[in-house]
Write a structure and sequence with these properties.
alpha/beta, Rossmann fold, seven-stranded mixed beta sheet, four-stranded antiparallel beta sheet, 11 strands, globular, binds S-adenosylmethionine
Length: 225
């Protein structure tokens, strides 16, 4: 079994179908805007973004994940360290990476997003909102394409939640233990502020997706679209 350094099973991410994430990003950006995906994995979202007309550069620290990219420019490296010297209309940080337990790593990710965002660009983020930390429970899960998921060993300690996701496809199975830090909306806004970003708007009714923009740019409601 091959896993990325963060524990994500590579094969699972080649089997997981896109679940509308690219459409959320597409809805925020101008047609054809170039996207930088931070933590792109095997390209589950990136490939769909390309199909929607967005050239994509994908950054990941796992060469095994990047090997599955097709039609996406691959950059091997840690998100916090990436310096491409280019700016993008959109930067995507999905998969709740912003809930990393490590505050310095979170700052590094948001600062990397900020230094690659065009002045009128948008960062699109998927996070665990505070309510998820109260409701996550053993046995939660479901099916996505051929992949069945199930959460177990949920444990709350301080501001952290640790658990294991089990993945099953037919008679094959994988496990991914993880730990996430609960961030209040105030914590989130202050982390964005420290990276030179400002919250822009919520993109889904459950507040699991939001956009952010450079502090000097116009808000979504005031800019011409
Ligand atoms: C759960 S997967 C999600 C991949 C993709 N965004 C998706 O939704 O299909 C998380 C990916 O982020 C990558 N990753 C996590 N932390 C990273 C870091 N600090 N720098 C680079 N890649 C990272 C992992 O290697 C993995 O491929």
């Amino acid at each position: 079994m091959t896993t990325a350094p963060d524990g994500s099973p590579v094969e699972v991410y080649t089997l997981f179908p896109p679940l509308g994430e690219a459409e959320i990003v597409h809805g925020v950006l101008p047609a054809g805007a170039e996207v930088l995906e931070l933590g792109c994995g095997a390209g589950r979202i990136a490939h769909r973004l390309v199909a929607l007309g967005h050239p994509v550069v994908g950054v990941d620290e796992s060469p095994d994940m990047l090997a599955h990219l097709d039609g996406v420019e691959a950059v091997l490296g840690r998100i916090g360290e990436v310096r491409l010297g280019r700016r993008f209309g959109g930067v995507l940080l999905a998969a709740h990476l912003v809930n990393t337990p490590d505050g310095a790593e979170r700052h590094g990710m948001l600062a990397a997003a900020a230094r690659h965002l065009a002045a009128d660009g948008r960062l699109v983020v998927q996070w665990h909102p505070p309510s998820w930390f109260e409701t996550a429970a053993d046995g939660q899960g479901g099916a996505a394409g051929p992949v069945r998921t199930s959460l177990r060993d949920v444990r709350r300690h301080g501001g952290l939640l640790s658990a294991t996701v089990d993945y099953r496809v037919g008679d094959r199975s994988w496990s991914h233990p993880f730990t996430a830090r609960r961030l209040s909306e105030a914590d989130l806004r202050s982390a964005l502020d420290a990276a030179g970003l400002v919250h822009d708007r919520w993109l889904t009714a459950d507040r699991t997706w939001f956009s952010a923009r450079p502090q000097s740019s116009k808000s979504s409601s005031s800019r011409a679209r």
